[in-house]
């Protein structure tokens, strides 16, 4: 008798690395056993899990490339038996009028011969709510939340029907809170009405987890769901899966502890300040010094070596917006970003080579660079530290193939004491 290859029920495509762990975290909390792959795997899935999240870096690349990578991921997920596909984007709907949410959604709909899907970035646990089609971040509209100044994807309109309509030829409509509050049957009736009006993609209102749990059953037969990570909490039940503590079990943690931070988001700035104020060892990298040459990576590793046995150390380039702007003005936005990412990735690798086995990385781009430098191909998802951020476990080439615990924190996620409390959560 030949052993049956593992088969998944839910196949997910995420447009960045930290967003992928955010989605995986919500699926695990709802009971699914999940792995996250870095890019599209070359080989069939070996792990016996319910869902796979394929992490791409497709949020801000040209639309045609984002479409090609997403279709590649779709083909691999289908080959692993996925019965439903989930396209995950940012809870602040990060995109430009050219894409990539619209073009990727259209391409996936075409490939799946799917004539209707939903789109909602709602993630109430992290204060992203959608009401009458408008996205709120905390108490303010998206375009007043700071996202209007984002360097790559400035979000200047909080009306998601308008935002998505600018990115797609398909007609966009709204399933408003009146329908969602009444439950799956009312959502189904609203979908039927929208379909009869020629709508193919519906933004969905959701202001609480109860809304998302009510929405879940209405999505059971949809071949494609597109959303932030919030919608994930209502999907596992459609496959008969209930929350269970075993889904998030990871191997026991050991080894030295460190944090590497390249995020300059407001939350990360507060987290760095909190770690420093607590008197913990922290080293700031100066991008202008990096640009001037010299061995800043070697110096940072030499600084960390004697401190690591005492507890977690932090190495960061995190800075206030004015300092970042000034560096970008001197070095160029792309060049500054790439140079800092390279340095932090080399530092992360050096730390792991020196015995760090519990590592927190802050920032989406920074996480991408670090995960690649660490030679990580796949992450097993464990317990949540804060909404959207789980501990993960992965084999790393930098650790000689051994496993390490790693947490990839989105810039704006996590409480102020995140860098200290994360390690407590592993014990
Ligand atoms: N002091 C600095 N000056 C200029 N650029 C910096 C500085 N520190 C970090 N950077 C760059 O800023 C970018 C930060 O992006 P990253 O995605 O890592 O964080 P984020 O935007 O806060 O996170 P997320 O994408 O999860 O919201 C990276 O390219 C990083 O290299
Ligand atoms: O949805 C979010 O806000 C995050 O998972 C993310 O994608 C940050 O880049």
Describe this structure in a few short sentences.
It contains 14 helices and 18 strands.
Can you characterise this structure?
This protein is globular. The strands form two sheets. Strands 9-10-5-11-4-1-3-2-16-17-18-15-12-14-13 form a 15-stranded mixed sheet, sandwiched between helices. It has a three-stranded antiparallel sheet with strand order 6-7-8, with no helix packed on it. A hairpin with a 2-residue loop joins β6 (128-131) and β7 (134-137). It starts with 9 loop residues before the first strand and ends with a helix. With 427 residues, it is of the alpha/beta class. Helices cover 35% and strands 22% of the residues. It folds into two domains: 10-244, Rossmann fold; 250-426, Molybdenum Cofactor Biosythetic Enzyme, Chain A, CATH 3.40.980.20. The mean pLDDT is 95. InterPro entries: 4-carb_acid_sugar_kinase_N, 4-carb_acid_sugar_kinase_N_sf, NBD_C, NBD_C_sf, OtnK.
Largest sheet geometry: 15 strands, mixed
Share of residues in strands: 15-25%
What is the CATH homologous superfamily assignment of the largest domain? Putative sugar-binding, N-terminal domain
Question: What share of the residues lie within helices?
Answer: 25-40%
Number of domains: 2
Measured between the Cα atoms of the first and last residue, the distance is 42 Å
- Widest sheet: strand order? 9-10-5-11-4-1-3-2-16-17-18-15-12-14-13
Q: What's the CATH class label of the largest domain? A: Alpha Beta
What is the annotated CATH architecture of the largest domain? 3-Layer(aba) Sandwich
In the CATH hierarchy, the third-tier topology of the largest domain is known as Rossmann fold
User: What is the number of E strands?
Assistant: 18
- Structural class, by secondary structure, is alpha/beta
Outline: globular
Mean pLDDT level = 95
Low-confidence stretches: none
State Rg.
21 Å
| Ligands present | adenosine-5'-triphosphate, the ligand O=C(O)[C@@H](O)C(=O)CO
* Helix count from the secondary structure assignment: 14
